[in-house]
């Protein structure tokens, strides 16, 4: 007869000592090694004598408690005076489904939800500017008892920018058969080939590999061999599978049949002088037409109000109709877009390498800057057009940033609907793209695009936000950059994060007393931390089971339809009627299971697992586990 005590750790909780819970010492799956081998006599049987565990409940997640909003941006006196809006997000459970998850699984759900809600590629885990994104961890006391969550938000920084031009992928901007541009990844060239009998081979292409970084990311092109008519710019998501521009565009952009850009540099011919000039355009608020307002491409006259306007009398001349580029003459030959948070910078580089900034977002007068970026333009993609046969544009630099799991179109474009790869909400990184496929651009995007800072027919002031000294978006450590709205914020006399309907995640994440998180527990110029103020409500509806892994006993598990090594059932409530925390189980009558050992067993290790009914590990156990076994000679 043998009484055997097993435990996952020799360390007791309390007094600052935390039980070891990793590797072979996990409280739900551990192995004890015995210094002196002991013998189990032939024809023995084993039973569980008693069990002591620390059990955390699961958390029930459904649409009644898993929705919230993420606000990324500056705080003016009113939200409408900023370029930002709260973005709806939710933990992975959609529809009417309820799923019970343990507290550790919920951290990953929450991380994914916050990252999606950022609507910004530099604020998500990506391949260059931000390796962390948002990290959510479980907070425990010294006894490893669950206390809530720590939410750590990490900002992208410019120091990690990478030139991604070799991995760019350009496709035709629309599906019209007459559009057949050529992209060479080896030479990084976009070429307009001569028309054929079956296609005009028009060339306008959009990069779908990844968006540009807004932590100082740059997109530059050499247009020396681009001919007289070309366009180089940046755009929000456009569905490249549409046949016509009118179907690709959104309802409040006019004219609806025009190819859309948010910012674009063009080579424009002036017939009166027979010369080509560099012109800049941005999509900003148009005049009121009837009872509606629109945005359209309007020219930005950089020579009258940009940072270099004092030395310019007109737009840059590219070349005249009979001239060509020459290395002996300082002729503009490259154009570069650079984004620093809200600021759009444009630089012109000549054939001798001299650079001139013609837009920088720093001018005191609003109309002397290109429009700022906003929630609708945080995911921006290069777009290039070449008009003349056998001419080409060469990409010089591209500081793209690819969030982990990113796919152009959020896996939601027309093709994904056709081939069945569309999955609701799983990859909703690009907020504008989500609005487009939900037909909500006019509901949510328009309200932002028609705010006062995008109205270029007035001179109302707007100061664009740039990057801090670390190349991140926060102005200072004391400023909030990210707010989490866990309950509907209907405030009208304060800043007010609106609209936030259906936000309901206060209890789920442990912020019952703090439904709007915009005062961090800790803050730096590149991070913010929020800590739960309440312990999230837990539920326990599942039984657990004790399994002795390396002995010869055999039992049957009907749920898995197979042979098992389970010895004992741990019901929802312990002997004292408790379902969470420290639980103790001792059967009033032990149930012995034969070991089927015809010979003496020599034992020097015991492997113990506590499992769910399907025999997956019970990962909601923490701290110290003790299981006592009793072995005796089998009785008939």
What can you see in these coordinates?
It is a single chain. With 636 residues, this protein is mainly β. The chain has three domains: 2-57 and 543-633, Sandwich (Jelly Rolls), CATH 2.60.120; 60-154 and 475-531, no CATH class; 160-419, Jelly Rolls (Sandwich). The strands form eight sheets. Strands 11, 14, 16, 17, 18, 19, 20 and 24 form an eight-stranded antiparallel β-sheet that branches. It has a seven-stranded antiparallel β-sheet with strand order 12-13-25-15-21-22-23, with no helix packed on it. Strands 1, 4, 34, 35 and 37 form a five-stranded antiparallel β-sheet that branches. A hairpin with a 2-residue loop joins β2 and β3. The chain is elongated and about 110 Å long. The two termini are 16 Å apart. Mean pLDDT is 89; it is low at 413-425.
